[in-house]
Design goal:
This protein is 29% helix and 34% strand. The protein has 4 helices and 7 strands; from the N terminus they run βααβββαβαββ. The radius of gyration is 15 Å and the shape is globular. It starts with 5 loop residues before the first strand and ends in an 8-residue tail after the last strand. Bound molecules: coenzyme A (COA). Coenzyme A binds next to β4, α3 and α4.
């Protein structure tokens, strides 16, 4: 039997509705749809990617490449496709891109109650550096800032 085809490609404006659906299914306070538009059209540091399994969008990743630092802006996998390795595929892709762009570190923020994402990032070698008070605008939840040092050896882990 043929194995299903998985593909990561750059996100474009036509992808916004499907990305927004995954966003809504993934977060209590989702980004508004227009935020994705702004990221794609106005943010010159932003790189967004979508992951397709055959013809179905199953996840997306957004990162900012700013000089020697990369920043994970957003990542989500469609709930029914979680725990199948898609999150790791997206992060491998983003980290490799950051290495190619000569970034030295990659940073992100994660809500302190998001234990699944926290485990996921720890498993990938991210370390908590500090706790940002009331980081999230709607929930006022604190966030952990996490950092991973990048080098050619670690991209692809
Ligand atoms: C975090 C997220 C992107 C991971 O994507 P994924 O495709 O499920 O991840 P993978 O299958 O590649 O990796 C699984 C790892 O994630 C963590 N994880 C995923 N689901 C988990 C669960 N139900 N319970 C505990 N850990 C879980 C574990 O570290 C797991 O590793 P393991 O399989 O060795 O136990 C996904 O859970 C998601 O979209 N969450 C909602 C959005 C979100 O919180 N984004 C991060 C914002 S900072």
């Amino acid at each position: 039997m043929k194995s299903p085809k998985i593909q990561i490609r750059s996100m474009n404006i036509a992808d916004i509705p499907a990305v927004y659906q995954i966003e809504k299914d993934s977060f209590q306070y989702p980004w508004p749809k227009k935020e994705f538009f702004v990221e794609l059209v106005r943010n010159r540091f932003a790189k967004y990617f979508v992951c397709y399994l055959e013809k179905e969008m199953v996840g997306f990743l957004g990162l900012w490449l700013i000089l020697d630092e990369a920043h994970i802006a957003n990542i989500a996998v469609k709930p029914t496709y979680r725990k199948k390795g898609i999150g790791h595929l997206l992060m491998n892709f983003g980290e490799q891109l950051a290495v190619q762009a000569r970034c030295k570190t990659i940073v992100l923020e994660v809500g302190i109650s998001n234990s699944i994402a926290l485990d996921f990032y720890k498993q990938r070698g991210y370390k908590v550096t500090y706790r940002r008070k009331n980081y999230y605008a709607h929930s006022f939840e604190d966030a952990y800032e996490m950092i991973k040092e990048l080098n050619n050896a670690c991209a692809g882990n």
